[in-house]
Design goal:
- By secondary structure, the protein is of the alpha/beta class.
- The protein has one domain: TIM Barrel.
- The protein contains eleven helices and eight strands.
- The protein has helices at residues 16-29, 46-53, 79-84, 95-100, 105-117, 130-134, 138-153, 178-195, 197-202, 213-220, 237-246, and strands at residues 5-9, 36-40, 59-62, 87-92, 121-126, 161-164, 204-208, 227-230.
- The protein has an eight-stranded parallel beta barrel with strand order 1-2-3-4-5-6-7-8, surrounded by six helices.
- β3 (59-62), α3 and β4 (87-92) form a beta-alpha-beta unit.
- α1 runs parallel beside α2 and α10 (213-220) packs parallel to α11 (237-246).
- It is globular.
- The termini are close together.
- Bound molecules: 1,3-dihydroxyacetonephosphate.
- Residues 9, 94, 165, 170-171, 208-211, 229-233 line the site of 1,3-dihydroxyacetonephosphate.
Length: 248
Amino acid sequence: MRQQFVAGNWKMHGSLAANAALLGEVLAGTTATRCDVAVCVPYPYLAQCQHLLQTSTVALGAQDCSVHASGAHTGEVAVGMLREFGCGYVIVGHSERRADHHESDALVAAKAQRVLEADMTPIVCVGETLAQREAGETATVVVRQLRAVTELLRQQSRRIVVAYEPVWAIGTGRTASPEQAQEVHAVLRAHLAQVGADIGAAVRILYGGSVKPDNAQVLFAQPDIDGGLIGGASLKASDFLAIVAAAK
Ligand code: 13P
Protein backbone atom coordinates (compact mmCIF):
# COMPACT_ATOMS: atom_id res chain seq x y z
CA MET A 1 0.00 0.00 0.00
CA ARG A 2 1.47 3.32 -1.06
CA GLN A 3 1.28 6.11 1.50
CA GLN A 4 -0.04 9.26 -0.17
CA PHE A 5 2.30 12.22 -0.36
CA VAL A 6 1.65 15.94 -0.77
CA ALA A 7 4.65 18.16 -1.52
CA GLY A 8 4.61 21.92 -1.89
CA ASN A 9 6.88 23.47 -4.50
CA TRP A 10 7.31 27.06 -3.45
CA LYS A 11 9.20 27.88 -6.67
CA MET A 12 10.83 31.34 -6.47
CA HIS A 13 8.53 32.70 -3.78
CA GLY A 14 9.01 33.57 -0.14
CA SER A 15 10.78 35.83 2.32
CA LEU A 16 12.03 35.20 5.84
CA ALA A 17 8.86 36.71 7.28
CA ALA A 18 6.45 35.07 4.85
CA ASN A 19 8.07 31.63 5.28
CA ALA A 20 7.85 31.80 9.06
CA ALA A 21 4.18 32.76 8.91
CA LEU A 22 3.33 30.11 6.31
CA LEU A 23 5.17 27.27 8.05
CA GLY A 24 3.74 28.31 11.41
CA GLU A 25 0.25 27.72 10.06
CA VAL A 26 1.21 24.58 8.12
CA LEU A 27 2.80 23.03 11.20
CA ALA A 28 -0.20 23.81 13.37
CA GLY A 29 -2.42 22.09 10.79
CA THR A 30 -0.33 18.98 10.13
CA THR A 31 0.02 17.45 13.56
CA ALA A 32 -2.23 14.51 12.68
CA THR A 33 -1.98 14.02 8.92
CA ARG A 34 -2.52 10.65 7.30
CA CYS A 35 -0.21 11.36 4.37
CA ASP A 36 3.44 12.33 4.03
CA VAL A 37 4.00 16.08 3.63
CA ALA A 38 7.00 18.06 2.37
CA VAL A 39 7.85 21.59 1.30
CA CYS A 40 10.46 22.26 -1.40
CA VAL A 41 11.86 25.72 -0.75
CA PRO A 42 14.34 28.08 -2.45
CA TYR A 43 17.99 27.36 -1.55
CA PRO A 44 18.58 30.49 0.59
CA TYR A 45 15.73 29.50 2.91
CA LEU A 46 16.85 25.93 3.58
CA ALA A 47 18.54 26.81 6.87
CA GLN A 48 15.53 28.78 8.07
CA CYS A 49 13.07 26.07 7.09
CA GLN A 50 15.26 23.28 8.49
CA HIS A 51 15.14 25.10 11.82
CA LEU A 52 11.39 25.73 11.67
CA LEU A 53 10.62 22.11 10.70
CA GLN A 54 12.99 20.37 13.09
CA THR A 55 10.38 19.02 15.50
CA SER A 56 7.70 18.42 12.88
CA THR A 57 6.73 15.58 10.54
CA VAL A 58 6.84 17.92 7.53
CA ALA A 59 9.89 17.05 5.43
CA LEU A 60 12.15 19.53 3.69
CA GLY A 61 13.09 19.46 0.03
CA ALA A 62 14.96 21.45 -2.60
CA GLN A 63 13.81 22.32 -6.10
CA ASP A 64 16.90 21.29 -8.07
CA CYS A 65 20.54 20.28 -7.59
CA SER A 66 23.79 20.20 -9.49
CA VAL A 67 24.70 17.11 -11.46
CA HIS A 68 28.24 17.55 -10.13
CA ALA A 69 29.36 16.39 -6.69
CA SER A 70 31.56 19.46 -6.12
CA GLY A 71 34.04 21.63 -7.99
CA ALA A 72 34.30 24.75 -10.10
CA HIS A 73 30.62 25.19 -10.99
CA THR A 74 29.71 28.75 -10.10
CA GLY A 75 26.16 29.15 -8.94
CA GLU A 76 25.47 25.42 -8.60
CA VAL A 77 24.40 23.63 -5.41
CA ALA A 78 25.60 20.09 -4.66
CA VAL A 79 23.47 17.31 -3.21
CA GLY A 80 25.86 17.01 -0.25
CA MET A 81 25.04 20.59 0.68
CA LEU A 82 21.31 19.93 0.47
CA ARG A 83 21.74 16.89 2.70
CA GLU A 84 23.57 18.99 5.30
CA PHE A 85 20.53 21.26 5.53
CA GLY A 86 18.20 18.37 6.24
CA CYS A 87 16.66 17.86 2.81
CA GLY A 88 14.92 14.55 2.32
CA TYR A 89 13.69 15.31 -1.20
CA VAL A 90 14.98 17.07 -4.30
CA ILE A 91 12.79 17.90 -7.29
CA VAL A 92 14.57 17.13 -10.57
CA GLY A 93 13.44 17.78 -14.12
CA HIS A 94 10.68 20.27 -13.35
CA SER A 95 9.29 21.51 -16.68
CA GLU A 96 10.32 25.07 -15.80
CA ARG A 97 13.93 23.88 -15.61
CA ARG A 98 13.62 21.70 -18.70
CA ALA A 99 12.28 24.73 -20.60
CA ASP A 100 14.23 27.63 -19.07
CA HIS A 101 17.57 25.82 -18.65
CA HIS A 102 17.38 23.31 -21.52
CA GLU A 103 17.66 20.34 -19.17
CA SER A 104 17.73 17.09 -21.14
CA ASP A 105 16.28 13.75 -20.09
CA ALA A 106 19.84 12.47 -19.60
CA LEU A 107 20.77 15.37 -17.33
CA VAL A 108 17.62 14.91 -15.27
CA ALA A 109 18.41 11.21 -14.90
CA ALA A 110 21.98 11.96 -13.79
CA LYS A 111 20.66 14.44 -11.21
CA ALA A 112 18.25 11.81 -9.89
CA GLN A 113 21.19 9.44 -9.48
CA ARG A 114 23.15 12.09 -7.55
CA VAL A 115 20.20 12.64 -5.23
CA LEU A 116 19.97 8.92 -4.47
CA GLU A 117 23.72 8.71 -3.87
CA ALA A 118 23.29 11.38 -1.20
CA ASP A 119 20.54 9.32 0.46
CA MET A 120 17.70 11.63 -0.50
CA THR A 121 14.65 10.97 -2.66
CA PRO A 122 14.41 12.53 -6.11
CA ILE A 123 10.98 13.76 -7.18
CA VAL A 124 11.28 13.21 -10.92
CA CYS A 125 8.96 15.45 -12.94
CA VAL A 126 7.60 14.47 -16.33
CA GLY A 127 4.90 16.04 -18.48
CA GLU A 128 3.84 16.96 -21.98
CA THR A 129 3.24 20.38 -23.52
CA LEU A 130 -0.13 21.33 -24.97
CA ALA A 131 1.21 20.88 -28.50
CA GLN A 132 2.43 17.38 -27.64
CA ARG A 133 -0.94 16.46 -26.10
CA GLU A 134 -2.82 17.76 -29.12
CA ALA A 135 -0.51 15.76 -31.39
CA GLY A 136 -1.37 12.60 -29.44
CA GLU A 137 2.17 12.28 -28.10
CA THR A 138 1.48 12.40 -24.36
CA ALA A 139 2.30 8.76 -23.54
CA THR A 140 5.39 8.73 -25.75
CA VAL A 141 6.76 11.91 -24.19
CA VAL A 142 6.22 11.02 -20.54
CA VAL A 143 7.51 7.46 -20.95
CA ARG A 144 10.61 8.75 -22.78
CA GLN A 145 11.26 11.19 -19.91
CA LEU A 146 10.80 8.50 -17.26
CA ARG A 147 12.71 5.83 -19.18
CA ALA A 148 15.87 7.96 -19.12
CA VAL A 149 15.71 7.74 -15.32
CA THR A 150 14.72 4.08 -14.98
CA GLU A 151 17.38 2.94 -17.46
CA LEU A 152 20.07 4.69 -15.49
CA LEU A 153 18.80 3.67 -12.06
CA ARG A 154 17.40 0.18 -12.83
CA GLN A 155 16.46 -1.47 -9.50
CA GLN A 156 17.19 1.76 -7.65
CA SER A 157 14.13 3.18 -9.42
CA ARG A 158 12.04 1.89 -6.53
CA ARG A 159 13.45 4.75 -4.44
CA ILE A 160 12.18 7.61 -6.57
CA VAL A 161 8.96 9.59 -6.53
CA VAL A 162 7.50 10.50 -9.92
CA ALA A 163 5.45 13.65 -10.52
CA TYR A 164 3.26 13.88 -13.61
CA GLU A 165 2.86 17.58 -14.36
CA PRO A 166 1.26 18.40 -17.71
CA VAL A 167 2.95 21.64 -18.75
CA TRP A 168 -0.35 23.12 -19.92
CA ALA A 169 -1.83 22.69 -16.43
CA ILE A 170 0.97 24.38 -14.47
CA GLY A 171 -0.01 27.76 -13.08
CA THR A 172 -2.83 28.05 -15.61
CA GLY A 173 -5.82 27.07 -13.49
CA ARG A 174 -6.45 24.43 -16.15
CA THR A 175 -6.22 21.12 -14.29
CA ALA A 176 -6.10 17.78 -16.05
CA SER A 177 -9.39 16.03 -15.46
CA PRO A 178 -9.14 13.09 -13.04
CA GLU A 179 -9.63 10.75 -16.02
CA GLN A 180 -6.90 12.45 -18.08
CA ALA A 181 -4.50 12.36 -15.15
CA GLN A 182 -5.30 8.75 -14.22
CA GLU A 183 -4.77 7.65 -17.83
CA VAL A 184 -1.22 9.05 -17.85
CA HIS A 185 -0.45 7.79 -14.34
CA ALA A 186 -1.46 4.29 -15.45
CA VAL A 187 0.92 4.55 -18.42
CA LEU A 188 3.74 5.64 -16.11
CA ARG A 189 2.99 2.84 -13.66
CA ALA A 190 2.95 0.28 -16.46
CA HIS A 191 6.42 1.48 -17.47
CA LEU A 192 7.66 1.19 -13.87
CA ALA A 193 6.17 -2.31 -13.65
CA GLN A 194 8.21 -3.31 -16.71
CA VAL A 195 11.35 -2.31 -14.81
CA GLY A 196 10.18 -4.50 -11.92
CA ALA A 197 6.75 -5.59 -10.71
CA ASP A 198 7.61 -4.45 -7.20
CA ILE A 199 8.78 -1.09 -8.56
CA GLY A 200 5.48 -0.52 -10.31
CA ALA A 201 3.64 -1.31 -7.10
CA ALA A 202 5.88 0.73 -4.81
CA VAL A 203 6.71 4.00 -6.55
CA ARG A 204 4.48 6.94 -5.73
CA ILE A 205 3.27 8.96 -8.69
CA LEU A 206 2.09 12.48 -7.80
CA TYR A 207 -0.07 14.70 -9.96
CA GLY A 208 0.87 18.38 -10.33
CA GLY A 209 -0.72 21.25 -12.21
CA SER A 210 -3.31 23.60 -10.73
CA VAL A 211 -4.18 21.31 -7.82
CA LYS A 212 -6.54 23.26 -5.54
CA PRO A 213 -8.67 22.45 -2.51
CA ASP A 214 -11.71 21.92 -4.73
CA ASN A 215 -10.15 19.37 -7.10
CA ALA A 216 -7.60 17.59 -4.88
CA GLN A 217 -9.90 14.95 -3.45
CA VAL A 218 -11.19 13.62 -6.76
CA LEU A 219 -7.67 13.60 -8.23
CA PHE A 220 -6.21 11.79 -5.21
CA ALA A 221 -9.03 9.23 -5.34
CA GLN A 222 -7.76 7.87 -8.68
CA PRO A 223 -6.13 4.45 -8.32
CA ASP A 224 -2.72 5.47 -9.67
CA ILE A 225 -2.54 8.99 -8.20
CA ASP A 226 -0.64 8.93 -4.91
CA GLY A 227 -0.83 12.60 -3.98
CA GLY A 228 0.23 15.90 -5.46
CA LEU A 229 3.04 18.32 -6.18
CA ILE A 230 1.51 21.67 -5.41
CA GLY A 231 2.72 25.03 -6.73
CA GLY A 232 0.61 28.15 -6.18
CA ALA A 233 -1.72 26.61 -3.60
CA SER A 234 1.23 25.61 -1.40
CA LEU A 235 1.89 29.29 -0.67
CA LYS A 236 -1.43 29.75 1.13
CA ALA A 237 -1.58 27.73 4.34
CA SER A 238 -5.35 27.18 4.30
CA ASP A 239 -5.27 25.90 0.70
CA PHE A 240 -2.23 23.68 1.28
CA LEU A 241 -3.78 22.22 4.43
CA ALA A 242 -7.06 21.55 2.63
CA ILE A 243 -5.13 19.70 -0.08
CA VAL A 244 -3.21 17.71 2.55
CA ALA A 245 -6.53 16.84 4.20
CA ALA A 246 -7.84 15.57 0.83
CA ALA A 247 -5.08 12.93 0.68
CA LYS A 248 -5.89 9.44 1.87
P1 13P B 1 0.69 25.01 -9.85
O1 13P B 1 0.10 24.18 -8.74
O2 13P B 1 0.90 26.44 -9.49
O3 13P B 1 -0.04 24.82 -11.14
O4 13P B 1 2.19 24.44 -10.09
C1 13P B 1 2.37 23.08 -10.23
C2 13P B 1 3.83 22.81 -10.21
O5 13P B 1 4.55 23.16 -11.13
C3 13P B 1 4.39 22.12 -9.03
O6 13P B 1 5.69 21.72 -9.25
